Amino acid sequence: MISRLPAWVWLGAGSLAVVAGMVNVVGYLGFEHQAITHLTGTTSLLGAALAEGDGRNALRLSLMVAAFVAGAVLSGIIIQDSTLRLGRRYGVALMIEAALLALAVPLLHRHQMAGAALAAGACGLQNAMTATYSGALVRTSHLTGMFTDLGVFLGHRLRGMPSDQRRLWLCLVIIVGFLLGGVAGAMLFRHLGYDTLYLPAALTGSTGIAYVGYRLLRGGTGTLSS
Q: Which segments cross the bilayer (predicted)?
């Protein structure tokens, strides 16, 4: 059970879900119609490509999987913890995510898979960065776990069992945030194309810079390593 949920967890989870929703819809609407923020469908397509002997497609899909995992590895190197708490190196991670998204744009304009891979790496970094809070998984780049938890909650309520209201609301915040990000991303893509990714890059980058500045003002340079 989540005993408490500070405002920064709500705000961070919702905002990052919006970012992921925007990034993923750009991937779907782009030249390869490629999911970026999650790997279940990508892995299934990789299996199909291997079964059909489609080497080019298998290589492309393997690149997406490897890029996402590499982003998660980078998060592990930077943050060095599996529990959400202020004081971790979230600002640095957010700035790196922003840089990866921004670098992806010109590559996507040239229809290069390296652009999608950079975006996938950014999402892997983000997803690993959020990790857990009070024993509850907080995943902002895909919704399978959130919808699963929502179903379990409803099942418990139907049986009259106790349920964690805060966990329910956290799931709903992430689901709604991801959906709104998808809506906004799709609308912007009609006018901006791949330049749409500059918006989530700006959001994560500015937040990262502000967070690093805040930690430096509060406790000096040593806070970045804690």
A: 7-29, 35-51, 58-78, 90-108, 168-191
